[in-house]
Design goal:
This protein has 389 residues and is α/β, with parallel strands linked by helices. The chain has one domain: Ribonuclease Z/Hydroxyacylglutathione hydrolase-like (Metallo-beta-lactamase, Chain A). It is built from 10 helices and 22 strands.
Amino acid sequence: MVAKITFFPVDNGDMTLLRLADSNATSLLIDCKIRSAADDSDDDTRDVAKDLRDRLKTDKNGRPYVDAMLLSHPDEDHCLGLEKHFWLGPLSDYPDDKKPENEKRIVIRQLWSSPMVFRRASKNNALCCDAKAFNKEAKRRIKVYKDSGFSVKDGDKILIMGEDEDGKTDDLTPILIKSGEEFTGINGQASEYLTSLLLGPFSEQDEETEEKLSKNESSVIINFKIKNTEFGSNTSKFLAGGDAGVEIWERISDEFQPSDTEYDLLLAPHHCSWRSLSHDSWSEKGEDALVSQKARKTLEQAKYGAFIVSSSKPITDDDSDPPCIRAKREYRSILGHSGIFKCTGEEPTKTNPAPLEIETTGSGFKLAATLPAAAYVTSNSPPRAGVWK
């Protein structure tokens, strides 16, 4: 058993599934983007909802689930389709047990969420319906924790990523992860298989920086240290930072050590946007746009043979941003001759993109062989119960 990370082709957006190397294949979904066109059998948009379901386990009641879901920030391209495809509410009220398997909404056993990214996003921009639904569910789970004395069951669990301003999260210590802290496992499981370092968002900002962050989403940023195999001891690092912009990567350079952002796999921030590497506009300044050396220092900590993945449309040599051809060139320079750059909109082809799967090796990652859906489950349990192999 090895750990595996699946990047789903969702155009400019993020939807990533991490499955650990433990016997239960404990899972973490990072963001989702399921377009309505993907639900239309007459449309050729990739059905990523089916791709996701094919990789999930079911519980004893036959309900598909992820052990946890992290919303990096509440932009529509990171949470689209949430209400339709995921169950938000108490498990005791789950209404889909008699529905066909492919219509049952996915249970989220534990939410990973930051109140700061909601506050900053909503300051100047209205939240989409799916973001509002996620925020409502997060607040429901926090209330359940408080009412129960912080002892809750799957389906009500939540971890808060980062302290909020003015002491708003001071009474949530048992479920609060502070910037710079490490925590282990997913939903109380597989603690030996995953150690996560929370790099952002930051809670205390001066007025000028806060204004910038209200416009350039201050996403949840985590460097995951993943145990490579079920019985081995080697680990690999996966750095994911949503749409974090150049200001945040610069601050991480100031407040963390280079080893804290070292990675074997990087999800290129903001769909390979130039704005994560520079204060200058690519469309306005072109090749005269300057790279922020502090931001680059944070993002250049690639280990030998590392991967960088752009979750985006195909990258073209024009003034588009994101994805940006200049950012791609910068990342390829970071990787050198030993690393590999991939774009989800181009794998395996631009006309027919499919989930990009990368799995752990003895050291680092490699491209995984594509397996049929049946390979992800066993036959000794209800409909889709069992473990991923």
